[in-house]
Amino acid sequence: MLSFIEREEQFLKGIIKSCGYEVEEVVLNSSARPEFGDYQYNGAMQIGKLYGQNPREVATKIVEKIKETNRYKDSNIAGPGFINITFSDDALINYMNELKENIDINYHNENPKTIYMDYGGANVAKALHVGHLRSANIGESLKRLARSMGHKTMADAHLGDYGRPIGLVMLEIQKRNPNLPYFDSNYEGEYPNISPVTNDDLMELYPFASNKAKEDESYMEEARLMTSRLQEGEKGLIALWNHIMNVSKKDIKRIYNRLNTTFEIWEGESDGSKYFDELFTYLKEKNLIEESDGAQIIHVKEEDDDHEIPPLLLIKSNGTASYESTDLACLWERMKLFNPDEIWYLADTRQSLHFEQVFRAAKKSAIVTSKTKLEYIPFGTMNGSDGKPFKTRDGGVMKLETLLDMTKEECEKKILPNITGEERDNIAEKVAIATVKYADLIPFRLTDYNFDPIKFSDMQGKTGPYLLYSTIRMKSLLQKAEEAGISYEKITKIKDKTDRDIMITSLSLRNVLLKSLNTKSLNDIAEYLYKITNTYNNFYAQNRILTEEDASLLTSWLTLTKIIFDNNLKLLNILGIEVPERM
Ligand code: ARG
């Protein structure tokens, strides 16, 4: 089933054809000048050019034909040939009732794809920092959007579990506890069941080791060696690594849970390593690997490059696998197991060269065939409220949890005073997540923004809490109607501009969804949510809904409220935002 606007576009296409013009596509846009109409068609100018006719005459011909059909309340021409259309109330009412029966009308998809998504990237044994926030928020929402539009998706947490950080942490554990059996290569016994480190230990160990390595090159070298011994599969180190993985993964999962971020697959960089042999043999057979200063590289330059693309480093001169090779090996696995139509990678803009190299090598070697599209989806930075990189008070990197807790504290102050105890805490958490997510998703994906917990948690304006508060109010109105025994089923009547505007705004949802999916940015959905909510609130302020005496208006308004409420829930869910019972 098509959305309202799509049907009108089809209809207009027929009209235009009957005027003797062939156009490929007819696009209706919501009106820039609402005083002239609800929607407008701007194609007459192009038709005029194509057929060598005056666009105003073309528009006149089309509008005459439109008028013959009596389909619209009004159609008229403005300027050089803009055609304005005002829909009839009946058409709007019918459509809203269809929407009530099937909220998914705007989500249809004739070309579903299988999409594999990579938006985790948390590093094992390191705290999640604010940089991981956008990847999780944008990635999760894109997954929910793609899925709601009929695509098949799966997401991989793709933990950073195979590189230098893990070597650093293991080295520091050894320095502090040299007698642990994990480091004794002659050890024959069973390794302990219990991890020698807790997550709190890890949070302290990594920054300590990382600072030490910066000052002490030989320490750094030892850490590199540790990583390479791990990659070679030294038994004791694998046992220790498994402990670290379990402890760290549990905490990472807990934080992703707070962010309503879910992964179907919990793999990491290391999971590609089981394919290293196959992969390297394959690449060798294709003659793609070259030796350079003891390292193994793949050239990925192309003839028409307008910027320098250095070769991809496959294996470092010390024998360890590079970040690039882990991504290539994971691609090998993903193609083998899932063969998706598209693979989406979310990582900040600084990783663009990395992905360019990996994608080129994957295509050049045909690890990924032309049928599968690889897409890198970069995003801008979230800074502190001063516009500088987000830091803790003592200058360290801000942990993601600190940011969430800080926001929660701010949100807690705004909740109704009669809500107490555990309920209060749960609501504060939901409001905080709504605050963080909405603020993160409303700027265009590539735009940097400054985080301001006070402004972002305001109950007024373009904020998560405003949307929650308004949506809860719709629900409580519906509850009150239920308590009063008022049943409602359909919209039968429109009173004035205040309820009609809600319907007109509803018509643009299909385009908003398509645009968001196309740009891979949630900003249009976030803006739309604000617009529809605001339009509804305006109606709510102008009318006394529950005491309305005209019975058909009363039931129409309740039905309208129910549609907008359900619709808001669905869109908020796409943004990863949960609505509390009250706040
Ligand atoms: N772990 C990486 C980081 O923290 C991000 C991983 C992005 N995904 C990938 N497949 N390389 O920077």
Keywords:
583 residues, alpha/beta, Isoleucyl-tRNA Synthetase, Domain 1, 4-stranded antiparallel β-sheet, 20 helices, 13 strands, 9% strand
Would you kindly provide a written description of the structure presented here, covering whatever features stand out?
It is a single chain. With 583 residues, the protein is of the alpha/beta class. Among the domains are: 4-87, Gyrase A, domain 2 (2-Layer Sandwich), CATH 3.30.1360; 164-258, no CATH class; 400-574, Isoleucyl-tRNA Synthetase, Domain 1. It is built from 20 helices and 13 strands. The chain has helices spanning 4-18, 44-51, 55-69, 89-101, 131-148, 164-176, 199-215, 217-231, 235-258, 276-285, 323-337, 352-364, 400-412, 421-441, 453-456, 464-483, 497-506, 509-519, 523-542, 551-574, and strands spanning 28-30, 39-41, 74-78, 82-86, 114-118, 152-156, 289-292, 295-298, 312-315, 342-346, 373-377, 382-383, 449-450. The strands form 4 sheets. It has a 4-stranded antiparallel β-sheet, with helices on one face. Strand 7 (289-292) and strand 8 (295-298) form a beta hairpin. Helix 11 crosses helix 12 (352-364) and helix 19 runs antiparallel to helix 20. Bound molecules: arginine. Residues 118, 121, 123, 158, 160, 327, 345, 347 line the site of arginine.
Poorly predicted segments: none
Please state the structural category: alpha/beta
Ligand identities: arginine
- Topology, number of strands: 13
Measured by DSSP, the beta-strand proportion falls in 5-15%
Which CATH C-level class of the domain at 400-574 is it?
Mainly Alpha
Looking at the structure, the CATH topology of the domain at 400-574 is: Isoleucyl-tRNA Synthetase, Domain 1
- Radius of gyration (Å): 29 Å
Please describe the biggest sheet, giving its number of strands, its sense, and whether it closes into a barrel: 4 strands, antiparallel
Based on CA inertia axes, which overall geometry fits?
A: globular
Question: Helicity, in percent?
Answer: 40-55%
Distance between the termini: 37 Å
Mean pLDDT score, rounded?
96
Strand order of the largest sheet: 1-2-4-3
Tell me what the CATH architecture of the domain at 400-574 is.
Orthogonal Bundle
Total helical elements: 20
CATH homology-level superfamily of the domain at 400-574: Isoleucyl-tRNA Synthetase, Domain 1
